[in-house]
């Protein structure tokens, strides 16, 4: 079964699923057979903060063995052991993957922080515009 066919099948089986446990408007599970999802700014901030905590916790410990690994791999290679280059290759892979994880955590935190702030700004504009339209009604 192709991915598209499997995805369509899965979506057709969950038309009334709601993550936030609030009944769908009209009782139909959303428009067009899709589920409605709701995430609050506080939830976004919480996930972003978890990513930031992971970043700071991992950053301090991920690279502490780098100098010792370099020394050991150089010594092993100099002494004619092939494990020296293997040790260096393992360290290099660890370092690269650790940097990727740190970058992803920073990206997640920054994106969710920006999304949360943008949402708050958008809400403020909506409230202001709504308030102004109500004021205008009284002067019409």
Describe the structure.
By secondary structure, the protein is an all-alpha fold. The protein is 72% helix and 0% strand. Helix 2 runs antiparallel to helix 4 (83-138).
Q: Averaging pLDDT over every residue, what do you get?
A: 78
Given the structure, what is the number of helices?
4
Shape: elongated
Number of strands: 0
Structural class: mainly alpha
Strand content: under 5%
- Rg, Cα atoms, Å: 26 Å
Low-confidence runs: 26-31
Question: Share of helix among residues?
Answer: over 70%
Q: Helices and strands in order, then pairings?
A:
Blueprint: H1 3-12, H2 41-62, H3 66-78, H4 83-138
Task: Summarize it.
The model is unreliable at 26-31 (pLDDT under 50).
Question: Keyphrases for this structure?
Answer:
140 residues, mainly alpha
């Amino acid at each position: 079964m192709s991915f598209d066919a499997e995805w369509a099948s899965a979506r057709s089986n969950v038309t009334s699923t709601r993550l936030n446990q609030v009944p769908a408007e009209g009782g139909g599970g959303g428009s067009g057979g899709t589920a409605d999802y709701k995430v609050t700014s506080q939830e976004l901030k919480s996930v972003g903060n978890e990513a930031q905590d992971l970043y700071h916790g991992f950053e301090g410990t991920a690279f502490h063995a780098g100098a010792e690994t370099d020394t050991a791999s150089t010594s092993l290679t100099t002494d004619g052991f092939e494990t020296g280059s293997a040790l260096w290759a393992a360290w290099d892979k660890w370092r690269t993957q650790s940097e990727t994880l740190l970058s992803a955590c920073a990206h997640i935190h920054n994106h969710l922080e920006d999304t949360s702030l943008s949402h708050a700004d958008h809400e403020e504009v909506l409230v202001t515009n709504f308030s102004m339209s109500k004021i205008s009604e009284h002067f019409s």
